[in-house]
Specification:
The protein has 164 residues and is α/β, with parallel strands linked by helices. The protein has a 5-stranded mixed β-sheet with strand order 2-1-3-4-5. The two termini are 14 Å apart. The protein has a single domain, classed as 3-Layer(aba) Sandwich (Cytidine Deaminase, domain 2), CATH 3.40.140. It is globular, with a radius of gyration of 16 Å. The protein has helices at 6-18, 60-66, 86-96, 114-123, 140-150, 159-162, and strands spanning 29-33, 39-44, 104-110, 125-132, 153-156.
């Protein structure tokens, strides 16, 4: 029996967490882990607690796409998206439990957007392990600078080693 590495295990888990997402376009899961490999919290993207889910009509962006008012493009018109990203959701879950260590690592199905990256770095994230890239080529110099200045590391995980 082949036992998965910690990276494989938490990457698989982030994919499982993503299945809870109610976003109609991108399902993202996150797992925050301390450096002793203990799970701190999980999070997935979706509308705020107590509101209609995206797939139930709770996202103005999706409604505009469905009604043909705007074209669906990944990363476009996000100002009308009411979803909380998985990384922020995981930070909130840990904070509610007063459980977020000063330094941690995160496993995500998709590389964080710039706003989530900044929040993760400010919360103490020192390692980001991700399965899929996120198209933000125009922000690469900023992202590289943030990693350099904070000492945070990013590692793209091999999908073939984490898929069940």
């Amino acid at each position: 029996m082949n036992r998965p590495t910690w990276d494989e295990y938490y990457s698989k888990l982030s994919s499982m967490v993503a299945e809870r997402s109610t976003c109609a376009y991108r399902k993202v899961g996150a797992v925050i882990v301390d450096f002793d490999n203990r799970i701190i919290s999980t999070g997935y993207n979706g509308t705020p607690r107590g509101t209609l889910h995206c797939i139930e009509g709770g996202c103005p962006r999706r409604q505009a796409i469905v009604e043909g008012k705007i074209k669906h493009e990944s990363g476009a018109n996000l100002d009308s998206c009411t979803a909380i990203h998985s990384e922020i959701n995981a930070i909130i879950q840990a904070a509610q439990l007063s459980n977020l260590p000063n330094e941690f690592k995160i496993y995500v199905t998709t590389f964080p957007c710039l706003q989530c990256l900044v929040a993760l770095l400010n919360a103490g994230c020192k390692e980001i392990n991700y399965l899929d890239s996120y198209n933000q080529k125009d922000l690469k110099p900023t992202i590289d600078r943030l990693f350099r200045e904070t000492g945070c590391k990013a590692k793209k995980m091999e999908k073939k080693s984490v898929l069940v």
